[in-house]
Amino acid sequence: MIELCGLLRLEAIADEWRALWRRVPAATTFQRPEWMLPWARHLAPADVRTLALRDGGRLVALAPCFVWRDAAGRRALSLIGAGLSDQMDFLAEPAHAGESARAVLAWATRSGAPWERLHLDELLPGSSLVVAAPPVSGWQDAIEPASACPELMLPRSVDRLADVVPDGFFSRLAFARRRAAREGYRLVSAAPDAVDEWLEALFRLHDARPDRARHGGFLDDPRVRAFHREAARALARAGALHLAGVRAPDGALAAVAYGFADHGRASCYLAASDPAHERVAPGDLAVLHAIEEAVRAGAFQFDFLRGAERYKYVWGARDRYNRRRRLHRVQPVLHEQPTDVQLLA
Predict the structure, then answer these.
(1) What's the rounded mean pLDDT across residues 139-164?
(2) Domain that includes residue 41, residue range
(3) Within 10 A of 65 (CB to CB), how many other CB atoms are there?
(4) Has this prediction a pTM greater than 0.85?
């Protein structure tokens, strides 16, 4: 059975969605309802179009999407989370992944679809949406590399980190850590009830970055900050959030690393530090603390996520590339089908 969902229906099946997420070993935080539902509420509340597939009543695949207009005014369909999610995909039980991907592409490129483009950006390299057969005629299809996502394979214990982090950088980290300890700095993790404090500190540190003008201020939009506040609280309740940081002698947070943990993988989504404390490299120490905590929790991989910034490679991280699939219609739109209805496949 195929079910087409708007936002209200998507919220109603959140528990089934979580159960499906747990059954998909390759799923990341960016496919969790704790991340995608806040994104939809704050950034696309009126334009959610989701395809849910069931087998005997059990949810086996879910493609949460939304409709938007590009700069030229053309309507496009994308996965929920676009722009703020570093690794995107739909969810499907492994046994149903291939057929579900074909169903998603067939639905998205049907003759009556009320959009002219399908933008599937930052797809995980193993996504079935990348390898599924081309859709029906009337659409042009292009698949290409997208962003680099440097990742570091982790050892089994913290005392083996020197085996994976390059010698020179590891020595600098050890020196910075000793200096920070002598001066009264502490490496700390956020308690579950301190998420708001830590996020506000992250926003403050990000706003104060000396290179902010060059890299842009993607946190400038108040809707984006509201999204992160809601998502971070939900992820903390689910045990999937990790906020690592460095507290200065006066108790203020001198650095924050905002990241996630799921399915044996940990990540750093955003990190910022106070230039006034640069002598003890608080940004590096915050990431080091996040990595050490990930190792202690049994993670096998630390993902620096999207972007080829130089600082990621000094840790010894190696690139893995996302994929992008773009389709556009070469035939006119005929009509629009309703959402929130159930159809037999």
Answers:
(1) 96
(2) 2-148+322-343
(3) 24
(4) yes
